[in-house]
Amino acid sequence: MKDAQPKAIFLKDYQAPDYWIDTTDLTFDLHEDHALVTSVLGVRRNDDRSDGSSEMPNLSLVGIDLELVSVAVDGQELPADTYVASADQLILPVKSQAFDLTVVTRIRPQENTSLEGLYKSNGMFCTQCEAEGFRKITYYLDRPDVMSKFTTKVTADKGRYPVLLSNGNDIVRGDLDDNRHFVTWEDPFKKPSYLFALVAGDLEVVDDTFTTMTGREVKLRIFTETHNIHKCDHAMVSLKKSMKWDEEVYGREYDLDIFMIVAVDHFNMGAMENKGLNIFNSSCVLASSDTASDASYQRVEAIVAHEYFHNWSGNRVTCRDWFQLSLKEGFTVFRDAEFSADMNSRGVKRIEDATMMKTAQFAEDAGPMAHPIRPQSFIEISNFYTLTIYEKGCEVVRMIQTIVGKDNFRKGSDLYFDRHDGEAATCEDFVKAMEDASGVDLTQFRNWYNQAGTPVLNVTDSFDQASGKYSLTIAQSCPATPGQDTKLPFHIPVAIALLDAEGNNLPLNSAGDTEQVLHLKEAEETFVFEGLSAKPLPSLLRQFSAPVKVKYDYSRDDLVFLLKHDSDSFNRWDAGQRLATEVIQEMVSAQAEGKSVAPDSKLIAAMGAVIADQQLDMAVKARMLVLPTEASLSEQAEEIQPLLIAEARSQVKQAIAAAHKDALLALYNALEQQGDYQPVASDIAERSLRNTCLAYLTELDEADMLNLAASQYDQAANMTDRNAALVAAINASHQDKAVTDRLLGDFLNRFKDDAVVMDGWFAIQASSSVLGTLSHVKALMEHDSFDKTSPNKLRSLIGGFAAGNMKRFHEGNGEGYEFLADMIIILDKQNPQVAARLMTPLTRWKKYEPEVRERMKKALERIKAVPDLSTDIFEVVTKSL
Ligand code: TRP
Ligand code: ZN
Prior knowledge:
This protein is an alpha+beta fold.
């Protein structure tokens, strides 16, 4: 029986398990309409939970949708009246301290559309067990503090499934009757069930090796369907770079003799760090110059690294319970971010990550699902794989590094890995290791783990000419979030510099340092700098040193000045974003009152100066030219007026294009590339700047500009330029249906057999302010290349429209919301994890202007009224309303 009302579980209720499972021996018999799973568990009483009496608690295992075939204890089958079994639990009386439990279950992977547990993707069997998918395979203590040594025997038809994989090393293989075969895998490392994996399919492999720092040779293997095998080189290079980097930067070596990656098309997330057998969404492995853009190349590199790094931060040291999720995810995102910064452009990486924080994470922190990086309760853990856990969790780890210093941080990570190797640890263990290794007191810093919401810093300053003293006063506050009305002050590292009238950095102390990290701990503090001859201009929160909002009363001239002179490239970018945001907000407010204001010429001129700047790093320059996104503008709005925001932003873009057409065109032409495609930082920077120019030029309502995009498309020698040209053409101010139809048709023709590229084809159209109308999106759902069971396709089309197309999603009388609600209601039965994620745009309804708000709410209420909602949707919808 399913609970009528799903219940929340609380961190404060954590208790260690009554039993351990020392060994887990699994046998999978895979068939075309079912799979038989035999599990032999070496169960042992947890002595710490014993009160000394001989009476032992029942063993209570969880399952989901399981068909129980048989149960035996120490080889003796149990009579049915001695235990309690249902589709979602198995409860047995226990008679001895340690025993072998054998459970046989029958499951139906072919019918599993949730993509959790064992399922089929394009004819291959694969698994996804994090967070609680293992219980869809067999009854188990499916919690990460129960760590077990796994052995897995897989048997299947040899013709259909020549490749049989699981975690660890393959120890035996052989043929069976009926053209079947088997392989047995043994994983010598204890692990929780969420890291279990199995793959069976007809796969091609790319082989390589890596020699570790102690001279051990590790086999590296990437598996894909045959037609994709030539797209694995970049992932392999990225893997080897990651292995080397983790040795050099963290002193961490890989531990098994083999490391495998498998690409699958149907996958709920990006990738999964299963021990020795990572399973990836195809879109995060495959890359070739004609099918993958620079952004995809970088994403593949980052995700391969992320999953590889989990081998230490996640697998060797895992999480005690799911409230500690950020222990592995925040730390691993920090590790992959530093890796990407070292491999590519550090400055651009910081801008990208801060953009993600300032738009999407800040919005999450201000929404109904806001939670601390260590949540205190949840209903469905799948809903907590969030930007807060991952990206804010990363920023919290980064702040620890800033506070204790890089050397101490490394000492702290060594101590953490040494202390907790082979254990299930907590966020507290991590902070304690950093504290013990550095001697720095992180007591107050721990508030970052307990409190949700984005802190706001109100900064004011004053200068006393007579004494030459400059005072910077910083007041911190944090808005209320669900369940947390008041907050304690955080320990916030605020990196600053002071600029003189020429734009030079002033010395901040007797040592002559020109940048300093202020440690803000009180609700309000004043920091005094001496020996100044005039009032400086502060450069605040350099490199985004903390995940907070800074309010300081910069004039527009100040922002133009910082945009030009700040020696911190991040803050130069940030100054431009602030200026543009202010200008757009001013236009929106005027529009709302029926007035119209032209874009401030200061912004237009400042953008012209950026275009003309020859000194600027090209990658940073390209970033600086991109206006704040609609999502960012919405996050910063008091009340969101979606159509006015979209309109004002597009007017500013057009004004910049009109004012600087010649310069943009000259830069565009100067940046034409010769030679073979290479996904290296310098080339990527040039392509990105050139394509940014193209995006501006097509803002002009001129046939020539549309033709420029079309001819770039026709001549494109790589996906970066082809993609950018297509996006520019279909969003161009000057439209010509014959041209867009031709380009979209050509793209379809070239790539219709490539599922990953086709994801992009759907996304580009769904998120286009020109093409992406509701009726167009609905028509695309019926397209031959669309697949309603593919999370990637659903995210591209429905997500591209609802989360990526402000103008079209919000236009009309709420038809967009009703469409999204319809989709969520259907998808909830099919794949609740994906449905819950797609619902996000509706959950932010309270921030919109009144009429919009009411329509969004209505759509949510309709979802809420549906009987038998999944726990995923139930949690999101009840918390949102
Ligand atoms: N642990 C995975 C990561 O590296 C996240 C993940 C992959 C996941 N697949 C999932 C989480 C399915 C929940 C459900 O970040
Ligand atoms: Zn991860």
